[in-house]
Design a protein that fits this description.
Layout: E1 7-14, H1 36-49, E2 54-59, H2 63-76, E3 80-82, H3 127-144, E4 149-154, H4 156-167, E5 185-191, E6 194-201, E7 216-219
Parallel strand pairs: 1-4, 2-3, 2-4
Antiparallel strand pairs: 1-5, 5-6, 6-7
């Protein structure tokens, strides 16, 4: 690393709350949009980043991500690159419920084969593939914003796996313990093109009932 390394920040923003009255796993299904609260979360993130030195924006192709990006792009007056590599993880159980009811994916014996290996996981896209595509997207964003900052709007699981990849954590995990709330920001610090640290914040925490703002900083 040089004596005065080039410092670049890439921020992974999770989309805001989605309108989902039936409580299904929407995954990559079309026509799932932000709720009124989700739009408020997106506006809050836009206000939070307004003074940042952001020169590059990219976004998942899914509606909820693009709707979260809209106020950010308007505030920063920047174009948005749509990047399929930061899309939600593929899941074979899209459209199913996970609430313990008779129609739940867990209680339907036809779905049990998908749960045979939760370490991979066998219900959808392997964690290793998510990590590979997210690592490439992060690097491209860092290159595009070299010496400045970039924002990527994506989804909880890809963001969490990207963080686990950088921090050397195991990919297999309890989804309830992911530190990646709605409209949260997971930030990656690059020094001369290499990730040197990760930080996390929740600018929209006040909009999540029962939540308090969390911050942490960890070395890569």
């Amino acid at each position: 690393m040089s004596e005065n390394p080039t410092r670049t920040l890439v921020h992974l923003v999770r989309h805001g709350q989605v309108e989902n009255p039936t409580g299904v796993l929407y995954g990559r299904l079309p026509d799932f949009h932000l709720s009124a609260l989700g739009r408020q979360m997106a506006d809050t993130v836009a206000e939070h980043v307004a003074g940042w030195d952001v020169t590059h924006l990219r976004c998942s192709p899914l509606e909820r991500a693009q709707e979260t990006m809209q106020p950010i792009a308007a505030t920063l007056e920047l174009p948005v690159t749509i990047d399929g590599r930061v899309i939600e993880a593929e899941n074979y159980l899209e459209g199913k419920r996970f609430d313990g009811s008779r129609n739940s994916a867990f209680t339907d014996i036809r779905n049990w084969w998908y749960f045979r290996n939760p370490l991979k996981p066998t219900w959808g896209e392997p964690y290793t593939e998510i990590a590979t595509r997210m690592r490439a997207a992060l690097q491209d964003a860092a290159d595009a914003a070299a010496g400045h900052q970039a924002i990527i709007v994506a989804h909880q699981l890809p963001i969490w796996i990207a963080r686990c990849d950088v921090e050397g954590r195991r990919f297999a995990h309890d989804p309830r313990k992911r530190e990646c709330t709605l409209a949260s920001i997971t930030s990656f610090t690059f020094l001369d093109g290499r990730i040197a640290g990760v930080s996390y914040s929740e600018p929209a925490a006040a909009l999540l009932p029962g939540k308090q703002t969390k911050k942490f900083v960890a070395g890569a």
